Amino acid sequence: MHTYMDILIRTIVAILLLLLVARILGKQTISNMTFHDFVTGITIGALAANLAFNETLKWSHITLSLAVMTVTSYLLSVVALKSRKLRSWISGSPTVLIEGGKILENNMKKVRYTLDSLDQALRENGIFNMDEVEYAVLEDNGMVSVLKKDEYQLVTKKDMKLQLNKLEFPIELIMDGLLLEKEMKENGLTKEWLENELRKKGKKISDVFYAVRGTKKQLIFDFYEDGIHKPTDKE
Fold first, then answer.
1. What is the pLDDT of residue 172?
2. Which residue of 97, 184, 201, 234 could cross-link 136, Cys pair, CB 3.0 to 4.6 Å?
3. Are the C-beta atoms of 153 and 104 separated by less than 8 Å?
4. What is the rounded CA–CA span in Å between residue 191 and residue 184?
5. By CB neighbour count within 10 A (0-12 exposed, 13-18 middle, 19+ buried), where does 219 fall?
6. pTM (2 decimals)?
7. Measured CA distances, 214 to 57, 166, 171, 186, 226 (Å)
8. Distance from CA of residue 47 to its chain's centroid?
9. What angle in degrees, to the nearest 10, is found between the helix axes of 59-82 and 35-53?
């Protein structure tokens, strides 16, 4: 019983330490996995796993190792911010895969990037014909950024000289059926106003699963009863 309790405590501590480390290192580590972030994530994960299950290792040793790894990773991040030359070594640098509509085979060989991977990355950018691409760049985090040729660029309101409307940041009003009174108050909205808007639709707050005021101040509702009698996919 003592062994199980020890593992339970060690696992909880490991999770809490990982959360603390993630907080210290910041969102960059979890959102964009560069070389540096990949190494940090793998190492810290291994240390946390040992802390949780390896009873032969002392708590103090693993905790110290985690602390050293965190500080080292943090310092490398600071160095990368200060020096562009070192940043390219620590985090990597972008690689051009397509330039002027031509595939750069040598660059692809250097980063061991295949045509299959390039095709997949282009499809993820909504491009199924490679001749639409002017530039394609493999970023530090493994994502591919694409610039389409001029004739394939989307037309914008500015191009057509149409009137531009000011857009607002969306405000969530109800999530999972719960009224977000704090967010509403911060944006000068009231529960009474929302109830009045719902009454116009013959609904009340308890009928709503999700509600948001959109970028054009339009109200978007998703009700518990969707009126879909034969859903396409059903669990």
1. 94
2. 97
3. no
4. 8
5. middle
6. 0.60
7. 53, 12, 7, 16, 20
8. 24
9. 170
Residues, the chain, total? 235
Q: Is residue 98 within 8 Å of residue 91, measured between CB atoms?
A: no
What confidence category does residue 80 fall into, taking pLDDT thresholds of 50, 70 and 90? Answer: confident
Please name which of 142, 23, 56 lies closest in space to residue 44, comparing C-alpha atoms: 23
The pLDDT, as a whole number, for residue 198 is 94
Question: Which tokens is 158 given?
Answer: 């500015």
Could you tell me which residues come within 8 angstroms of residue 197 by beta carbon, excluding any fewer than 6 positions away? 219
Query: Is it the case that residue 32 has pLDDT exceeding 70?
Result: no
The terminus-to-terminus CA distance of the chain in angstroms comes to 39
What are the DSSP E strand ranges found in the chain?
95-99, 102-103, 133-138, 144-148, 171-175, 178-179, 208-213, 219-223
Report d(CA 154, CA 161) in Å as an integer: 14
- Phi, psi at 9, each rounded to 5°: -65, -45
Judged by DSSP in three states, 160 sits in coil
* Tokens at 197, concatenated: 């808007």
C-alpha 61 chain-centroid distance: 33
